[in-house]
Amino acid sequence: MPTQARPLDEAELLHRTALLAQAFRPAAPVDRRGLFSGRGEQIGELFSVAAQAGQHAVVYGERGVGKTSLAAVVAELLAGSKILTARTNCDASDDFTTVWRKALGELVVHSTAQTVGFAGETTREIRPASLLLGTGPVAPHDVVRALETVTHGGELALFVDEFDRLRDAEARTLFADVVKTLSDRLVRATVVLVGVADSVGDLIREHRSVERALVQVRMPRMSRAELAEIATRGIAAAQMTIRPAAVDRVTALSQGLPHYTHLLTQLAGQAALAERRADVDVPDVEAAVERAIERAAHSVSEAYYRAAGEIRRRHVLLACALADEDEFGFFSPAQVEARVSRVGGRLDAEALAGELDALAAGDEAVLQRGGPGGGRYRFANPLVQPYVVMRGLADGVVKTRDLR
Ligand SMILES: Nc1ncnc2c1ncn2[C@@H]1O[C@H](COP(=O)(O)OP(=O)(O)OP(=O)(O)O)[C@@H](O)[C@H]1O
Ligand SMILES: [Mg+2]
Prior knowledge:
Blueprint: H1 10-23, H2 40-51, E1 56-61, H3 67-80, E2 84-89, H4 96-105, E3 108-114, E4 122-128, H5 140-150, E5 156-161, H6 169-184, E6 189-196, H7 200-203, E7 214-219, H8 224-237, E8 241-242, H9 244-254, H10 258-274, E9 279-280, H11 282-295, H12 298-307, H13 311-322, H14 333-340, H15 349-359, E10 367-370, E11 376-379, H16 384-394
Parallel strand pairs: 1-6, 1-7, 2-5, 5-6, 8-9
Antiparallel strand pairs: 3-4, 10-11
Helix pairs in contact: 1-10, 5-6, 8-9, 8-10, 9-10, 9-11, 10-11, 11-16, 13-14, 13-16
Bound molecules: adenosine-5'-triphosphate (ATP) and magnesium ion.
The site of magnesium ion (MG) has 3 residues, from α3.
């Protein structure tokens, strides 16, 4: 048995409570290197793209896997090596013109003007780079010309996030044109498109014509080791410790989604502090699960209640959440079948197929059919998957040995 540590006094408790709040970011992308874990491969790829003239990149993956955080941290690192950076987001109302006005609005151009007079003084003028685009609708060559001006003084890396939300199909084609022209003319600007997608083709249909210029950076779910790093680093930053078994529990429950690692570790830390301890153990994670269910986003709990109406369907949903998924979240009916009996359900393959179909039917369906050959399923919102497992645990239907 470990020796019982002295309970924290009031000042120590307050200090750690504050640190714990800063160390975890369940609700927002990480934008500092200090809070960011893993993803060495993707950082390396983006660095080499930025270093090579004529190369651009697409970062794509499931919702919530950490795409924006990667973009933010790479932008920070590039800025540290004297590369000009800008980040912008697309939304459903954007078109090609509005995205580029926003993107270039993040940058400034310096110009010098000679003033008349004896001394021949010069004045420096600073203007937003979006003025380079003129006032009318923007065409790809306007963008390229503006970027040539902006990169006159050095290199530029421009991140366009939430590219999947750009509904305007023509705008996406025009983006491909920009990439192609920037690449052909070796402009020192690197464009990085970021969005939710299973393949680059989902984001840019014309990607074949720009294939050589556009490097594909795929973001899989995070590994257990990467998630463990988030948990241990954050806890250390809060001047606390965490048992390996507690880290294990958190990373198993997170299912590759860093949001849950932040949330569960932070809540487990709070549970330990509530008992004046600086050491986080498995029961603290169990307490965190209860709190995490209460704190789940409305959209997540709604999706659960809509889907899990009757008991049989709840068993199927749980079995889905426990099935071994691939890097894109897909699992097969056979994997679900193997799990159904473990959560107390009884179904033959045919009945199961019917249940899965029902869960994947309609606009607001909790499951999505797809994957290689189209015969697999996944959670339409990945964040619902760990939620379902945690509900199962809290309801006593899932045993911890059923967690992966
Ligand atoms: N490498 C990382 N290290 C630590 N925390 C991370 C990392 N990547 C992501 N996170 C955390 O995971 C959560 C989701 O990250 P992020 O918003 O970057 O994902 P996303 O893929 O952009 O999501 P969306 O698809 O919704 O835009 C955030 O709480 C963020 O703090
Ligand atoms: Mg994002």
